[in-house]
C-alpha cells in the first residue's frame, strides 16, 4: 500500500502485551508511508485515549498530542462508566 494516515490511533486495548504485536496495530510497516496525528495521547490511560509513542514515518502531535482546545473532556465519564461495570 502506498500511504496510510492514522487519525488518533487508539490506545486503551493496545497497551497490553497481546495487542502490542505489530500485526495487531498500525505501524510504519503497513504502507510505504504512514503519517499519524495524535490528538488525545498520553502515556497514562486516565489522561488520554490515543497512543503516545510515534508509530509512523511522520507523527504529528498538535497541542503536544494532548486534548485539543475547545474539545470537551470525556475521559473521566468514560473511566467512571468502565470502572462501574466491574
Automatic annotation (TrEMBL):
Gene3D superfamilies: alpha/beta hydrolase. It is found in: Secreted. Residues 1-81 form the Lipase domain. Its main location: secreted. The keyword Hydrolase does not apply. One of its GO terms (cellular component) is extracellular space. Keywords: Secreted. Signal peptide: none annotated. InterPro entries: AB_hydrolase_fold (IPR029058), Lipase (IPR013818), TAG_lipase (IPR000734). The keyword Lyase does not apply. SUPFAM superfamilies: alpha/beta-Hydrolases. GO terms for biological process: lipid catabolic process. It comes from the Eukaryota. GO terms for molecular function: lipase activity. Belongs to the AB hydrolase superfamily. Lipase family. This is Lipase domain-containing protein. It comes from Dendroctonus ponderosae. The lineage of its organism: Eukaryota, Metazoa, Ecdysozoa, Arthropoda, Hexapoda.
Amino acid at each position: 500500500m502506498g500511504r496510510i494516515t492514522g487519525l488518533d490511533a487508539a490506545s486503551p486495548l493496545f497497551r497490553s502485551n497481546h495487542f502490542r504485536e505489530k500485526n495487531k496495530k498500525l505501524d510504519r510497516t503497513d504502507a510505504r508511508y504512514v503519517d499519524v496525528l495524535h490528538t488525545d495521547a498520553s502515556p497514562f490511560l486516565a489522561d488520554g485515549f490515543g497512543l503516545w509513542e510515534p508509530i509512523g514515518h511522520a507523527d504529528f502531535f498538535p497541542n503536544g498530542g494532548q486534548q485539543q482546545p475547545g474539545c470537551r473532556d470525556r475521559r473521566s465519564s468514560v473511566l467512571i462508566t468502565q470502572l462501574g461495570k466491574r
